[in-house]
Amino acid sequence: MFRGTHRHNLDSKGRMNVPARFRDWLNDHCDGQIVVTIDVQSRPGEHCLVAYPLPTWEKVEARVAELPGNNPVARQFQRMFVGQSEEMRLDSQARILLSPNLRRFAEIDKELVVVGQINKFEIWDAQCWDRYQENSLNNNDGFASLGDLVL
């Protein structure tokens, strides 16, 4: 579904172009409807946004709704993950509008990177992505924790 890394620029209104391969899949499978939210698991300096096709989001949201309402951590997670989400549809030129709130969280100014993650995609500020990628490639000892994953 969503693979590869694509660089784009925001226009003056905060709209980003969705990569052609992503756009085609989104139009074919969910009428261009997506939900964008913040990556609540990101660390400082590595904030990004996560975009889900609407049907995938609905499954994720149902799992989040099953979290115990009396658990303060679960409630905090719901508030951040669901509370920051925005439903949108690709416009006629295959763009989405990233709200100032979402752009502020991910520190996206002008240049951004869209990173495919199989069933969703991430949206990063380009400089932040470059730093993250360099740090990951220089410190990949953690990949050993994946065990016997064979690709």
UniProtKB/TrEMBL annotation:
Cell compartment(s), UniProt: Cytoplasm, Nucleoid
InterPro entries associated with the record: MraZ, MraZ_C, MraZ_dom, MraZ_N, MraZ_sf, SpoVT-AbrB_dom, SpoVT-AbrB_sf
Pfam families per record: MraZ (PF02381)
Keywords attached to this entry: Cytoplasm, DNA-binding, Repeat, Transcription, Transcription regulation
TM region positions: none
SpoVT-AbrB domain boundaries: 5-56, 85-128
Primary localisation category: cytoplasm
Oligomeric form and interacting partners: Forms oligomers.
Family to which the UniProt record says this protein belongs: Belongs to the MraZ family.
UniProt xrefs under NCBIfam families: division/cell wall cluster transcriptional repressor MraZ
The protein's name in its UniProt record: Transcriptional regulator MraZ
Organism field: Acidithiobacillus sulfurivorans
Classification of source organism: Bacteria, Pseudomonadati, Pseudomonadota, Acidithiobacillia, Acidithiobacillales
